[in-house]
């Protein structure tokens, strides 16, 4: 049986819930600043009334029109994930790909790292910079159509400040692909200058496209080539081997399978990978992930509880997350939690609540 989600933590600088949540179902670690539910068959929580806590600001939006606190949301997601089974996914072909990719990087002039624009930090491989060294790099934030203008502007300013060359793209429609091609060629133009100086003939620029599973690497290549050369589908793990493809006479592209760390230590990032379908379904409990998604959407000022209630015609009360998924299951799926959870996740992925990022830059 999947554990019910822990309640939202009270607004504070730590992850620990307030004294109102400290009951017999909780054990508090003396070494860390958070509490986790005991693993029992029933981890139900007695929710405080709206008059007893600050939970009402999560249900009714940001208090006093204050600027939304993204750092607090990250802390809350971190807290919610602690009692859950860790999300881990490392199929056999990834280990093989990682080894082969390191060898191919020796032949590459410029690296194109593709990330999901909804979660740019969570789709950043912790070893990527070490593998790339001093090679030219272009960062592509794919699925720009799935985030708001405010999200895009925030990330554009953040990466510009870091001196990172970033392109926003839509691999499904081809937006940003020609700009990407021009930038890749310009960054590697000195390759043929050096070859001519040595009396060698010019060769095509070699660009490697890397990134997490299902972030749209193959779709970008297909749009660049204007034909389907690489298998692509809206699920992780479709591409399973490295493949070189030619783009005219001036550019060669290396399509690679998605690569993940062998162990994902940041479970806040892992949950967001699951929400955005950037990791295999077998790695997580769909009910838990959908419940956390609901708790996130309730807090986002651009969505809030109104959009969720309107979508499913179910009233939200103090019992959020898992309880709401159970209500959806009872109303639409004869009590089937998994079907209800899949519906909620699919609705988010299709933009039924509006397009919004789940991360903002850590200013």
Automatic annotation (TrEMBL):
GO annotation (BP), single: mitochondrial translation
SUPFAM superfamilies for this protein: P-loop containing nucleoside triphosphate hydrolases
GO terms, molecular function: GTP binding; GTPase activity
Residue ranges constituting the G domain according to the UniProt record: 207-261
Record's keyword terms, sorted: GTP-binding, Nucleotide-binding
Xref: Pfam families: MMR_HSR1 (PF01926)
One of the record's GO cellular component terms: mitochondrion
Official protein name in the record: G domain-containing protein
């Amino acid at each position: 049986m999947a554990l019910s989600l822990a309640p939202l933590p009270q607004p504070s600088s730590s992850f620990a819930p307030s004294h109102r949540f400290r009951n017999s179902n909780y054990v508090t670690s003396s070494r860390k600043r958070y509490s986790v539910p005991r693993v029992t068959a029933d981890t139900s929580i007695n929710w405080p009334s709206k008059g007893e806590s600050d939970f009402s600001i999560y249900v009714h939006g940001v208090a006093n029109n204050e600027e939304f606190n993204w750092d607090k949301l990250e802390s809350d997601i971190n807290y919610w994930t602690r009692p859950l089974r860790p999300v881990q996914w490392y199929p056999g072909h990834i280990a093989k790909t990682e080894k082969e990719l390191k060898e191919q990087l020796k032949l590459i002039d410029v690296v194109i790292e593709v990330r999901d624009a909804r979660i740019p930090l969570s789709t950043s491989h912790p070893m990527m910079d070490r593998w790339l060294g001093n090679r030219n790099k272009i960062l592509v934030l794919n699925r720009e159509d799935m985030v708001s203008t405010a999200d895009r502007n925030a990330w554009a300013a953040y990466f510009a400040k870091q001196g990172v060359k970033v392109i926003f793209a839509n691999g499904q429609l081809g937006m940003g692909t020609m700009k990407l091609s021009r930038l890749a060629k310009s960054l590697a133009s000195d390759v043929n200058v050096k070859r001519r100086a040595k009396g060698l003939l010019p060769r095509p620029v070699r660009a490697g496209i890397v990134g997490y599973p299902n972030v749209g690497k193959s779709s970008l290549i297909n749009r660049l080539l204007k034909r389907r050369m690489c298998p692509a589908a809206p699920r992780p793990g479709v591409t399973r081997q490295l493949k070189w493809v030619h783009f005219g006479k001036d550019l060669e592209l290396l399509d690679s399978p998605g690569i993940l760390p062998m162990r994902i230590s940041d479970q806040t990032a892992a949950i967001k990978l699951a929400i955005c379908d950037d990791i295999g379904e077998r790695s997580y409990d769909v009910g838990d992930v959908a419940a956390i998604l609901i708790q996130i959407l309730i807090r986002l000022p651009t969505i809030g509880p109104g959009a969720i209630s309107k979508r499913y015609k179910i009233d939200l009360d103090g019992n959020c997350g898992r309880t709401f998924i159970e209500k959806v299951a009872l109303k639409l799926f004869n009590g089937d939690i998994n079907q209800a959870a899949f519906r909620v996740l699919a609705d988010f992925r299709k933009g039924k609540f509006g397009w919004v990022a789940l991360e903002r830059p850590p200013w």
